[in-house]
Structure formats: C-alpha cells, structure tokens
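Amino Acid Chain and Its Fold in Token Form
===========================================
Purpose: to set a sequence beside its fold so the mapping can be learned.
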Amino acid sequence: MSLRRRLTLSLFTILVLFAINVGTHFWGSYARSESMVAYRQAVSAGQLTDAMAKQLEDQRQKILVLSTLRENTEDVLAVEDQQTALQGIAETRGTVDALGGMVSDVTALQFAQLGTSSERLLASWEAFYRNYNDKSWVSDVDDPIPYVEASQRLKELEQRQAFIAVQRANVIDRTIALTDRITVLGFIASIFLTATLGFFLVRYTNDNLKRLKRGTQRLGGGELDYRIEDIDDDGELGDLASAFNTMSDKLRRAIDEEKDAKRSADEANAAKSRFLANVSHELRTPLNAIIGYSEMLHDELGDDTEVNRPQFQTDLDKIILSGRQLLALIDDILDLSKIETGKMILSREPFAPGDVLTMAIDALAPILRHRGNQLRCDDFTALPVLNNDAVKFRQIIVNLLSNAAKFTENGTIAVSANVDPHNHSLEIAVSDTGIGMTEEQQAQVFEAFVQAEASTSQDYGGSGLGLAICHDFCELMGGTITVESAPGEGSTFRLRLPVDPESVPEAA
C-alpha cells in the first residue's frame, strides 16, 4: 500500500471514529429524551390515579350519608344537588378516560380491570342519584364490595405505574451513564488512534527511506545480488525501489538461472522421495506376506503333528505370488532406472502382435474379470507382423490391462486393434469404464514418480511407475501412447507402433 493511501486511510479512520462518537452522543440524547417522556407519563398517570382515588372516596362518603338520610327521613334531593352529584360522577369518568389515554402494554390488563369495576360502581351511584326521590326504588349502594373492588383495581394500577416509573428512571440513569462512558471512551480512542497512526506512519516512512538508502549504497558498492524487496509500498516509494531492482536484473540473470537449475534438481529429488514413500507400502506388503507365511510353515514343520499338505500347498502358492509381485515391482524400478540412464536395450525381432495380445489377455483374464468386470476383445489373427521388441510390447499390454482392472468395478474392459493405413501404424486401444481422470490428471499420468492423486496409492495400490514405463517403452520402440478420459466415464489408452521396419529404431 502506498504512502498516500496509508495517509488517506488513516484520516478516513479518524473521521469515522469521530462520526461514531458524535452519532453515539446524539443517540444518547434521543434515548434520554424518550425515557424522560415515558417517565413523565408514568408520573402523570400516578397523579391521576391519586386524584381518582380521592374522587371515589369523596363520592363514597356522600353516597353513604345520603343513603342514611333517605332511609330515616322523608327529605328529597334538590334538582341542583342532583345535577351537582351527577357532574361529580362524570368528572370521575373523565379521570378514568384520562388514565386510559396513558395506558401502555404493561398496564393494559390493570386498566381494563379498573375500567370494568369502576364503571359498575359509578353506574350504581348514578342510578342512586337519579332515583333518590323515588321511595319505591330499592338502593344497593350500601354494598361495600363494588367500592372495595374498584379501590383495589385502582391500587393495583397505581402500583404498576409506580413500578414503571421506577423502571423508566433506571433506564434514564443507565442511558446517561452509557452515553457518557461511550463519549469518554470515544474521545480517548480518537486521541490514542491519532497518536498511534501518526507514530506508525512516521516510522513506516523513515524505515522505507532507510531501506532505500541502504539498497542504493549496496547496489552502488557492487552487490548486484542485493534487491530492495522489503518495501511494502505500491506507490512512490515502491516505484523507486523497483527502479533500483531493474538496474540489477540483467546482471543477476545468470545467478537466477543457476538457482532455477538447483531448484529443479531439488524438486526432482523431492519427487523421488515421495515416490519412495509411496512405493514402500507396495514393497512391504508382499514382503510381509512372504515372511509371515514362511514363519507359519516353519512353525508347522517344527510341530509333531502331521503336516496339512493342501494348506501347506496353499501357503506356498501365496508366498510364490507375493514373491512374483515383489519381483515385478523391482523390475519396474530397474526398468525405469535403465531408461533414465539410457541403458535400456531394445531387441528387434519379428513377432505376431495378435499372439502376444492373446497370451497376455489369457494370462490376466482372472484379474480382469475380478470385481465383476466383463472382458471384450477383437479378433487379432489378421494383425501384421511387427519387427520390434516383443517383450516390451507384452509388458506395455500387461501394464495397461492391469491398470484398467485396478480402477474398474462391475464394468467393462475392452481391447481392440487395427491398422491405420495412412500412418502405417498398428493401433491398440485398451478401454475401461472405471473412475476416469480429469484433464489435470491426464497431463501428468505418464510422468515418473507421479500418480493421478496423492490418495491413489492408498486407495488402489500401485507404485505409479507402470504408465511411465509404458510411455518410455513406446518412445523407445518408435511409437506413441495417449489417453482419453473423463471423470466417472472411464479411460481409453491408445498405443501406436510403426508397422514399417524402417520406422523402428535400431536395436541397442
């Protein structure tokens, strides 16, 4: 990042921090105002509750006095007094309505209960005043239950409102404390960040200038292998460092080429080391079988019991099979070593490729049909005679067939052969319906010490040498080998060998 961008980013960060601080202050002011409004409403509701309690108490006292006079005297209630009493009840209803205007979700239940009980009480009082002069009307205002119930509901509402007022006050206190704390922390953080960014920017600029000075001195002193690469800047400072580095590129090219050659050698050695790690399992498996069955046979011969000859023969067959597997693996390693050192011998001799194909397929038929595979072959009797190395031809076919059997299950393995009259070559195709390969895997499948994937050796076995040997043998015999594959659709390996003896390399 360039110095200009670092300065811009630092300034932007400081501005953002200040904006957050200012926003927090305004948010705190808004929250404080809202909490104060809610607190005032709670206080006003408490005052209305006290006023209503006093109104109910006054009305109750008047009702009781008038009820006593009505029962013991013949006095009547004047119209003016009656209107005054009804107006007092209307004022009490107005107080209830005012409380309803301040109701919230928290006090809705208490207000609903108060409204029901107070309306029932006020209605009975209103009926008392309206029918006071009717001596035949029976009054029930002496029943204290409606008044007690309304007073109780009013008390519950008052307690709830007092609780809300306390909660609102606590919210206001917490909001004030939080906003003050955030504001203080924001200003402290702004000061700290400004100082920190300034310190790092100064140090960054100073360090880069020192690196440029040191690089200039060393390049000027003849140290052409020195490069100014420790400047983390893609602007002016980085351009200046790149200009100094460009000055030494041409003179350092020879050194770089030498380093590249050494790196390639190290990578080749690393590839061989990975190959040895992969092939060690393939070597240990038959060796373990040979040693294990040999120890079993040795122990059986040492016992006094009669030897189980069929079982003895079976164990010997397993030892022989493991030995042959081990020998085949060692032969592959030796063949690859001879190819790399240029000591592989090509023995030219006439042979019938159809006979070699038939014998190889017959020998591998049990393995090819293993795991539920089907085998399909063309008629090879009409194939022309080749003047080439029959042993290497058979080894190529065996490796291709073994490879197809290893990666195919409940599928089909097909072998076809035909002569291409245009290129005067014999084309043999070994196809399977196995797991197939991606384009990246196909690009490296013929490389020595490399398998399609790192897990191939663990999942399917093998050393990864078979196809590399096939490729090298084909080139040695004057032919080519290619692969066509797709993941999950199988693979087809095509072997092309020249029919014309003049196109075959001389025997070595």
Notes: The CA atoms of residues 118 and 150 lie 5 Å apart.
